Amino acid sequence: MKLTYKRILIFFSVALNIGFVVVALTLVWQHAKPAHQRSWREIVDVVDQLALPASESEVALDNIRVFRSEFDQLDQDLKTARGDILRLLARKGPLDREQLHGLMAVADACVKRKSERFEVHVMALRQLLGDEKGAQFFSLLEKKVKPKGGPSHQ
C-alpha cells in the first residue's frame, strides 16, 4: 500500500475518533436530569410564573417540598406492600388466600392514604395561594404535565 493511502486512512481514523469523543461528550453534557429533579424544576418554574411575593413563593415551595417528601414515603410504602404481594404469589405450594387478602388490604390502604394526603395537600395549597393564583397554578401545572401531541384523556 502506498504511503499516501496509509496517511489518508490514518487521517480519517483520527478524525472519526475525535468526532466520536465530541459526540459522546455532547450527549453526556446534555443528558436530562433524573425525573425527580426535572419535576421539581418544573414546579419551581410554575410558582415563578405566578409572580408571587418572595415570602409567599417560599411558603408555597416549602408546602410542596413537605408534600413531596411525604408522598415519596407513601409511594415507597405502596411499593413495599406490592412487593410483599408478589413475594407471596411467587412462593411454591398452595396459596394462603387469607394472607393474600391481608396483603391486598394493606396495599389498598396505602393507595387510599396517598389519595387522602393528595387531597389534603391540594386543598391546602389552593387555600394558601388563594382562588385566583391557585387556579392559575393548577392550570399551569396541567399544561406542564399534559403529554405533548398525544391524545387527551378527558
Task: Compute the CA-based radius of gyration.
Answer: 26 Å
Output the CATH topology: Four Helix Bundle (Hemerythrin (Met), subunit A)
Q: Any guess at the CATH architecture? A: Up-down Bundle
Morphology call: flat
List the helices and strands and how they pair.
Blueprint: H1 3-30, H2 35-49, H3 54-90, H4 97-145
Describe the structure.
The chain is an all-alpha fold and 154 residues long. The chain contains four helices and no strands. The longest helix is centred in the last third of the chain and has 49 residues, at 97-145. The mean pLDDT is 86. Keywords: Membrane, Transmembrane, Transmembrane helix. The chain crosses the membrane at residues 7-29. This is Periplasmic heavy metal sensor.
Summarize the structure.
The chain is an all-alpha fold.
